[in-house]
Amino acid sequence: MKVAAIRQLVADATNLFSLPDIYFQLNEMIRDSRYSPADIGAVIAKDPVLAARLLRVVNSPFYGFQARIDTLSRAITVIGVDDLYSLVVATCIADRFRQIPGELVDMASFWRRSIHCAILVRALAKRCAVLHAERLFIAGLLHDIGSLLLYHRLAEPSRQALLAANGDRRLVPGLEQTLLGFTHAEVGRELLKNWGLPESLYETVGCYLEPEQALLHKLDAHLLHIACRLADCKSAAERQATAAGFAKQTLVLVRISREQILEIADQVDQDLAQMLDLFSPP
Questions:
Q1: What's the predicted TM-score (pTM) here?
Q2: Are both 151 and 231 inside the same structural domain?
């Protein structure tokens, strides 16, 4: 019953929140070695917003390239396909959710938290030597995407959940379960699956609230769980308390100590402003 309701919700919104053709075209080209940076650049050039953002990112201090990059093919060579994929997804997704009612959510704050979580989970993944850690950046960026669909399609119960939570995001999933019968994570899972994104991504997002429920991507789900909990902390004391509360089995699985988690979170704080400027939606 719950699964059917979620699928119907996503199906009803498929046209409204479908990704643009350029996303699917680039996704295929990025994964296919037959396509050169020049081929990919030619497709990106058809989207001025995406092209401008890619050039801005690759010329930023974040990459530290000395000479200015002024061609898309060179930018793609410098930035790499993983970061390019992150950039494409960020731009495409952000553009699709511009019409969320402002009285429900401050979209600037929403994306700030999403980007913060994305940077955190990527940093955590790199610390524990996860291969292709960039996929965790995408998971962090999109972990709350189901909330945006709920805000748009089920605005009133979503508003009730937010009001009842009174700013404490830890309470929101339980309130969603009570008011809707499912959580934003479950909706996000179905939406990402509907978009044809990889199972590693939609299972991680779908299980981030309860990472032990993940079947194939348990490590990713636990890393995302940690990152999202940290992103919700409003002070150093709250962050320390949150880290102290992580289960021992979680720390064993991710192979990172509480002290290392706090160290990574502090470092991300220093890099956050620059990363927000690079990856925030237009």
A1: 0.88
A2: yes
